Amino acid sequence: MEDAQGRAIRYLRLSLTPACHMRCVYCRPAFHTNHAPGMLTPDEIERVVAHLVGQHGVRKVRLTGGDPTARGDLLEIIARLARIDGLDDLAMTTNGLSLAAHAREYAAAGLGRVNVSLDALDPARFAAMTGVDGLDRVLRGIDAALDAGLTPVKLNTVILREQNESQLPALTRFAAAKGVAVRFIELMPMGPLGDEWADRYVPADEMRSILNDIVQRWTPLPQGSDSAKMFRARLRDGGEADIGFITPMSCNFCSACNRIRIASDGSLYPCLMDRPTASILDAVRPRFDPGAFDNVLIEGIAGKAPEHPSRGFVTMTIIGG
Ligand code: SAM
């Protein structure tokens, strides 16, 4: 499945719910509630993914949200997707709060790996940014994910000016100590939260220069299908960490974009920052109709712009980062 720019679409990001236990200042507006009516059911999700894998060459699915763990039927969804032939990579992005208790169950159901958001290692900073006094739980969750084999575990950190640039060195040392990669993400202006973007945006070059205090040498790593530019960083204290920079704003990677997105309400988004082109609901309810689904899909792919718009249409908690 290719778009008008010749980009092959291989990767589905599936937002399972807009609900989340956290209220990260850059992701979930104060007015956003956890009420999420009409979400795609496990059966509908399985049929859509099986069709995308079997008929359209999708090879990778990431469960996101909101937080996927806010869904009571998450284990069923994982198990249904894990049995789809031809799906090479089933991953999940999570706030990490439920991993200490459930990482083993997710792995047993068939989840391959997790990315965990971690914006600070200082408990007060963490609580200020996420709205939850939960740093300790997330750190235990990261250990549980490693123990359960949900690897490679990757950490995601959005850097905000005057909020957590100071955390860059500690997060890098933490990644080195745990042997996990950390990816520092440039803030994106998403939906109504985009108004504060200019005051809070930190370009990746600036993050890197802050890190030069503790990094002696940066060795570029091969660019995989990942959107992060990865480096092996040799630390001045002798350690080593794999550090990535995700630069949607300073240096976008749209030309290599291989993704489409479906939100929990069935909206099809050709791009993280664009408006949805259509809903898949009529094509999946009351029963999955492959022809109708393909029409919606073709229209969506045709609507995939060469580059993302300068401002996101919805907040990340709705579309799923
Ligand atoms: N709840 C899960 C989590 O915490 O990772 C998954 C959903 S969250 C929307 C996915 C990722 O999007 C997180 O790493 C989050 O930090 C990132 N994110 C949210 N809003 C963002 C923004 N405005 N700019 C850049 N990244 C953002």
Mean pLDDT value = 95
Bound molecules: S-adenosylmethionine
Overall radius of gyration: 19 Å
Secondary structure tally: strands: 12
Ranges with pLDDT <50 over ≥5 residues?
none
**Helix/strand/pairing category:** alpha/beta
If you consult CATH, what is the topology?
TIM Barrel
* Biggest sheet: strand arrangement: 7-8-9-6-5-4-3-2-1-10-11-12
The DSSP helix count reads: 11
Let me know the largest β-sheet: 12 strands, mixed
Helix share of residues? 25-40%
Q: Please state the second-level CATH architecture.
A: Alpha-Beta Barrel
CATH homologous superfamily?
A: Aldolase class I
Kindly give the count of domains: 1
Q: What is the name of the CATH class?
A: Alpha Beta
Element pattern in H and E: EHEHEHEHHEHEHHEEEEEEHHH
Q: What is the percentage of strand-forming residues? A: 15-25%
Q: Globular, elongated, flat, extended or rod-shaped: what is the shape? A: globular
Instruction: Give the end-to-end Cα distance, rounded to a whole number of Å.
Output: 22 Å
